[in-house]
């Protein structure tokens, strides 16, 4: 499930509350933790394995850092490819949060079943 929209509207909190309500453990990581990791494939693999082992809901917070579009052959292209390979076989709930859904890689967006947009709050009553 992709939760996207303006900052500070409760995207991460939504995932945390739903996880608590469903009484599952939450495995929360920041996408920025994976950037520049020499062993990215092992890191991503371990994250998915750990979440599966503990039957946890996985929350990848602030995905705009990790899964955005970029030029072909870049580091991010490789990261996206690794993430997609592991995502294909992940049979648990996964939350992705971002402020910039327009920058998401199309290959990722095509694999997301539910997208929830958080609109900016207004002052109209």
From TrEMBL:
Organism annotation: Ajellomyces capsulatus (strain H143) (Darling's disease fungus)
- SUPFAM superfamilies named in the record: P-loop containing nucleoside triphosphate hydrolases
InterPro entries from the UniProt entry: ATPase_AAA_core, P-loop_NTPase
User: What GO molecular function annotations does the UniProt record carry, in alphabetical order?
Assistant: ATP binding; ATP hydrolysis activity
**Which part of the chain is the ATPase AAA-type core domain?**
1-115
Q: List the top taxonomic levels of the source.
A: Eukaryota, Fungi, Dikarya, Ascomycota, Pezizomycotina
Concerning Gene3D superfamilies, the annotation shows: P-loop containing nucleotide triphosphate hydrolases
Name of protein = ATPase AAA-type core domain-containing protein
What Pfam families does the entry give? AAA
Q: Give the highest taxon in the source lineage.
A: Eukaryota
């Amino acid at each position: 499930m992709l939760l996207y929209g303006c900052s500070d509207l409760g995207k991460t909190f939504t995932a945390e509350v739903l996880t608590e309500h469903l009484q599952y453990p939450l495995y929360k990581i920041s996408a920025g933790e994976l950037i520049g990791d020499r062993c990215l494939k092992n890191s991503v693999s371990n994250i998915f394995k750990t979440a599966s082992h503990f039957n946890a809901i996985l929350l990848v917070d602030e995905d705009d850092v990790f899964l955005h579009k970029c030029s072909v052959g870049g580091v991010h292209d490789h990261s996206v490819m690794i993430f997609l390979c592991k995502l294909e076989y992940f049979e648990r709930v996964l939350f992705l949060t971002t402020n910039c859904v327009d920058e998401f890689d199309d290959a990722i967006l095509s694999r997301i079943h539910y997208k929830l947009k958080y609109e900016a709050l207004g002052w109209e009553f």
